[in-house]
Amino acid sequence: MDKRFGMQLLDNDWAGPALISLAAILVISALQPSFLTPFNILVLLSAIAVNMVIALGQLVIVGVGQMNLALGSLGGLVGVCFVGAIEVLGVPTPLAVLMGLSIGVLAGMANGYVIARTGISAFIITLASLQIFKGINLGITKAQPFYGVPDVVKQFGNTAVIGPIPWLIAPMLIAALGLWYLFRRLRIGRYILSMGGNRQAAELSGIDTVGTVIWAHAISGLLAAAAGMMLVARLQIGQPTIGDDWLISSFAAPVIGGAALSGGHVSVAGTFFGVVIIAIITQALVLFSIDPFVVQIVLGSLILWAVGINRFREWRFAKMATAGA
Amino acid sequence: MGSLLEIRHVSKSFPGVKALDDVAMTLATSCVHALLGENGAGKSTLIKIITGLQHPDSGEVLLDGSPVRFNSPREAAARGIAVVHQERNLVPRFSVGENIMLDRLGAGSLSRIDFVAIHDEAAHWLRLLDLDIDPKTPVSRLSVAQMQLVEIGKALSLKSRALLLDEPTASLTPAESDALFGIIRKLRADGVAILFVSHKLEEVFQICDTVTVLRDGHNVCDSVPLAGLGRQDVVTMMIGRAERISSRAPRPKPATTPYLELRGFSSALGHREIDLAVRPGEIVGLYGLVGAGRSELAKSVLGLYRQTGGEIKIANTSVHIRSVADALHHHGIGYVSEDRKGEGLILMHSVLDNAGITVWRRLAGRLGLLRGRTVARAVGPVIERLEVKTPSLQQTIGNLSGGNQQKVSVAKWIAAGVKLLIVDEPSVGIDIKTKAYLHDLIHELATGGTAVILITSDMPEMIDVADRIVVMDGYRIKGEVENDRNYDRVSQAIMAHIHARKAA
Known about the structure:
The complex is a heterodimer of chains A (325) and B (504). Chain A is mostly helical and 325 residues long. Chain A has 14 helices and two strands. In chain A, strands 1-2 form a two-stranded antiparallel sheet. The radius of gyration of chain A is 20 Å and the shape is globular. In chain B, the strands form four sheets. A six-stranded mixed beta sheet of chain B has the order 6-7-8-3-9-10, sandwiched between helices. A six-stranded mixed beta sheet of chain B has the order 16-17-18-13-19-20, with helices on both faces. In chain B, strands 2-1-4-5 form a four-stranded antiparallel beta sheet, with helices on one face. Chain B has helices at 43-50, 73-78, 96-100, 115-128, 144-157, 174-189, 201-207, 231-239, 294-301, 324-331, 340-344, 351-356, 360-363, 372-385, 402-416, 432-447, 459-465, 487-503, and strands at 3-14, 17-28, 31-36, 58-63, 66-68, 81-84, 162-166, 193-197, 210-215, 218-225, 260-267, 274-278, 283-287, 307-314, 317-319, 333-336, 420-424, 451-455, 468-473, 476-482.
């Protein structure tokens, strides 16, 4: 391979993860033909759809240069509120969806407001709100699942639109395209990235940094809520434990996809392939009956590798910036 | 030429130091105004007050004759006052045009950005600056000079009537500076009031019409025409007369073998052919204007930046210093940073921890155990000797005054028993009494056999403390002046070395 071509590929956030995804699919399907059966693809795509929305919820916050530890806890809270409202209060399903999304947005705004107003790091604030959301969740459910998931929701989470494409792909596509457009074309998206890229410059340019942070967390809350309800649809049950295991993969996918954890640089397409890679690794576990610990080690190594690549890229970027053109 | 922005009787105090004392300045339209002063004279505080980052304790800022009080740079910008800071304030991954128009990307948060219009508008401002850059270029691809000009373009696009330029030429080549001056003249012709902060006097004389000089927070002159002033007049105003060159007891002659010797030293930062020797018991001053590369030389010797040539000798043995830990533990070199709060101290830690940090490694037991009492025994006497005013060793150091903080940052090196102490701008932001005390302390250390390198931009301090003064400019050594404490002779000799380059 020509060296310059290699470098160009390296500069492209999604090309590397896309190649790895492709290679993994080829290797696994060669070893285990059942990997590419329509049913398995349906299962894989359903997992990807939910995890992508989770990862996008973290991506927005990474873009602004912060972290959201409360993402899973909020998703879980919205999940049980959603089913609880239908089962206990008899709220019609569409209204319950709307209510779930509103809870996500409001909780996210609260996070953002406290972070922006106090200047305390997002890590600490979302660590605190993680506990608060989880506490409310357990208070509502008494740690028991809600079983009253309506059939329409169950079907949405477990049937295909066409062929092996699940309905769950629809909300994922809306979220991914919406966020992609937001980061490219909408004022708020550029403000989020400008704050992540050079906070001081953004502030001195007269950007409303408080409002921008609140916006970012509101979007993150919206996506957490959507993912929580998508997971309810997929599991067909209002589990109080939904969201407990989102944290690692919500950071891993954006980082594998080339996002700078310092902020200011994100890739929606890269994140997608990050999600795909994680989903394939997890599937391989089931297909080859591998011990779960191996998957964790592989996932950890993958994160290290991705961080290394990003570090190298940032170093080259900084060198270019100081050397000029 | 009317008055646009007026500063009247402005005073501002920080704990332990009066940064501005009854300062006045008037910026007029169609006029380039120089704001001069040595480090710590109060220039940056004055700029911060104009742009609303800080508020004066007393006095007022008048815009178009009426008092204003900005709460943020945004408010100042809205009234036509824009600042181009020394640090780059651009978003590197964004395009030039987007950076220029960053605060005007759209009406609402969810507005779609019209990049064509943004880049068109930006192109207009770039043309005005004769800048041949495609507004779609990412800022990270620009040279430092281009970034500087983009920031000026951004300031102008706010329809600024007053433009404050803080050391705009610090990172520019002479040719780039000349281009910038052409633009400044054009802006002046268009009626903009420009404040020009620079340490390069030849530039000031080339471009400025009026001048305000600050020294120790006071006006030495307030908005006087530059015509009729000579460069020597301005230098005298900036550095002041030797008010207090104290008589000091003669110290024993320093030893003949240098403790530290640099031969043909060069660094990755651009130092070339540096020859420097410091003997035990000797105080060598490093004088130079800001940007001469003095602190950078100290840090290169400490191993923070890579040595690219020449040799470093410690007590006649050629050595290679790999890191600051290496410099301290193997070669006995300590460095009191000019940036006390950023680099010298851990503000949220106690006095004990700050003073003891250099000796932990020595005091730690075999298992790496460190006992507070052991450290207190080592550090306590030094803290006491330096008369650090603190209620206890457990006091958080951020709560002490600047002068006492500075004493602790010297104390930690004394506790470590360094053989060479590099002191960088020791008296920035501290009161006169502590300053005199620190000077005595440096002398005392030297008398005790410590080799000292003193870096300061404060000429009276230099002449008061140093034994001989090495003059630096442009990352090279320009010459050396034996200090006989005759202020006029020594200061003129130093200035002659600095300006030798321009004559040549």
